[in-house]
Amino acid sequence: MKLLKHAGVVFLIIIMGLLAVACGGKTEQPTSAPAEKKDEQAQSASAPEKKTYKVVMHAEFPPFEYLDPSGKPVGFEVDLINEMAKEMGWNIEIKNTSWDGVFEEIGSGKAELAISGITIKPDREKLYLFSEPYFQAKQLILVPEGSPIKSLQDIKGHKVGVMTSTTGALIVSDLLGKANKDILQYDEMPSMVEDLYNKRVDVVVADNAFLMEHMKKNPKPGYVTIDDPNIPKENYGIMANKKDTELIKQVNEALKKVKDSGKYDEIYKKYFGEVK
Fold first, then answer.
1. Phi, psi at residue 140, to the nearest 5°?
2. What residue spans of the chain are helical by DSSP H?
3. What is the pLDDT of residues 203-245, one digit of tens each?
4. C-alpha closest to that of 99 among 207, 171, 187, 183
5. pLDDT for res 251
6. Which range among 12-26, 93-107, 143-157 shows the weakest confidence by mean pLDDT?
């Protein structure tokens, strides 16, 4: 009888030991992530990182670009480059700089793109790459009413205000000579027009869009614009470093997409009225 009791105890101990091993060997399985979370993680891993480009401009050229009361660049070209960035999935950082600084930053590679009413010209194309044209402009002459100046040729013998390194400056210099003391160079167009109003210069030669916008927003009686048909029209383009051939191809692609979608016309109408 004692022997049977002893065997029963041993059997019980063995059974308890086996149960303990079974319980101890059991491991918790990791909880699976929800399906939505997995999809988000997969998309995040597969989504390409957005490229960031620095864009420079001289924000003293309304309505193309100017600073709002908070100091932020706004205007036609700001809206255009932002829309192009949306089409291409780019991030862009817009920087306001001087007119000469626009060219310096592109040439040095500190910025990738420049959009600032930059006329596509053969001498510039030797140094930089340009996109397809996105705006056609021409130079206008601004004078007081009753001025003897009726055409570009008539500016000879008069003090002429132009903006440094612009098409207007080039046209006037070609006509009067680069060293002519009657040519007054300005870094900003508003200052140039103010000097005409204050009779420090007799005539101003500048881009049509700027002059028309300035006169609309800052009406000054007694001044008229002259459209000389002998002054050739010009095209604005987006500028890049000479080595960035692939980037310019993408810029042209973005520009085409914005035009094809109708967004270009919307932006144009916002700043200039009906598309011509």
1. -115, 160
2. 2-24, 35-46, 76-88, 99-108, 122-125, 167-176, 189-197, 208-217, 245-261, 263-272
3. 999 999 888 888 888 888 999 999 999 999 999 999 999 999 9
4. 187
5. 98
6. 12-26
Q: Tell me how far apart the alpha carbons of residues 132 and 149 are, in angstroms, rounded to a whole number.
A: 35
- Render 135-170 in DSSP notation, one character per residue: EEE-EEEEEETT-S--SGGGGTTS-EEEETTSHHHH
Distance CA 61, CA 96 (A): 11
pLDDT recorded at residue 49: 75
Separation of alpha carbons 255 and 7, rounded Å: 92
Helix or strand holding residue 240 (H, E): strand 239-241
> Is the peptide bond preceding residue 122 cis, with omega within 30 degrees of 0?
no
Cα distances (Å, whole numbers) of residue 201 to 143, 144, 184, 189: 9, 11, 8, 13
**What DSSP designation does 219 have?**
-
Least confident of 4-8, 71-75, 118-122, 145-149: 4-8
List residues bridging with 225 in a β-sheet.
142
Query: What's the angle, vertex CA 125, arms to CA 166 and CA 63, rounded to 5?
Result: 40
For 263, the token pair is: 């967004």
* Range of weakest confidence among 23-27, 55-59, 113-117, 162-166: 23-27
Average pLDDT on 93-107 reads: 96
Q: Name the amino acid, one letter, at 45.
A: A
Closest CA to 107 of 86, 126, 131, 89: 126
Write down the pTM of the prediction.
0.72
| pLDDT average, residue stretch 77-103 | 96
